[in-house]
Amino acid sequence: MAGSIYIGEILKNEEIQEDCFLMKIKLASSFENPLPGQFVMIRIAGLNDPFLSRPISIYSFSREKNDCKMELLYRVVGKGTQILAGLIEGSQVEINGPLGNGFETDSVKENIIFIAGGIGMAPLSMLVESLRNCAGHSSAAMSVYTGFQSSSAVVGLDKMRKLCRHIHVCTDDGTLGKKGFVTHIIQQDMKKFMPENTSIYACGPREMLKVLAKILGNSKFSCQVSLEERMACGTGACVGCAVAVKDKQGKLAYKRVCADGPVFSLSDIIWE
Asked: How many CA atoms within 13 Å lie on the side-chain side of 114?
């Protein structure tokens, strides 16, 4: 899904955890309502270096009388995000979006499981918020499984706790919640859920999703995942973020994460 280019004004850009920032941007009211799972390409307004445009998932969005407010949750991982982290209130940014295809929510089942690894909390937070506030799903029906490297890397948990009743946290070093990977807890708990009444949504590192695919195996669980891939253009023109998937006939095909995703059915992705 193609987006449009807007100039946004930064209202805040705060470091909420080590190397993790929450940016709030004011946009024109003409900005299209994003779907949970969509993203934007962001760069400093007027800067002509294309390598400084970065894809960031939309963390939250609200529409007001005369404008829109959008929050982006991001981690500093390189030159581009380091530059974004240095922007101050009042700075202008160029926003291309909303981009990509979001999560499909028309056939959400009775029980809903969210699995987030690290900054993967961003798109899932918007999805949870949408299901609670727009679709009217109960917090009791939602189970959130989150994994972080340590307590110092935890982001978005306060928001999730306000929206969902069942929260499971684990850290690699055991400094918060259970010690270990989030996939370990999922593997133990999947027997509590039945495929016919459970929807699963996940976002996180590739290795986490790869293990999740093995856990679900050939089961009948419905699982949608948002892939975290490096993107250059964000619109599919450069084909730099292609991933291997199975087409409708089960044959090998390649899809662009930015234009055909970032959300895919977990069972369609070819990991090897």
From this structure: 33
Token pair 């899932």 is found at: 124
- Note whether residue 106 is domain-resident: no
Where are the extended beta strands (E) located within 18-85? 20-28, 39-44, 54-63, 67-75
Q: What is the CATH number of the domain that holds 62?
A: 2.40.30.10
Q: pLDDT (tens digit, 9 = 90+) per residue, 97-151? A: 999 999 998 888 889 999 999 999 999 999 999 998 877 788 888 999 999 999 9
Which structural domain, as residue segments, surrounds residue 126? 111-223
Q: Which CATH number is 265's domain given? A: 2.10.240.10
Please give the Cα distance from 118 to 108 (Å, whole number): 24
| 105 domain-assigned | no
Query: What pTM was computed for the model?
Result: 0.91
Dihedral sign from CA coordinates of 272, 196, 145, 71: positive
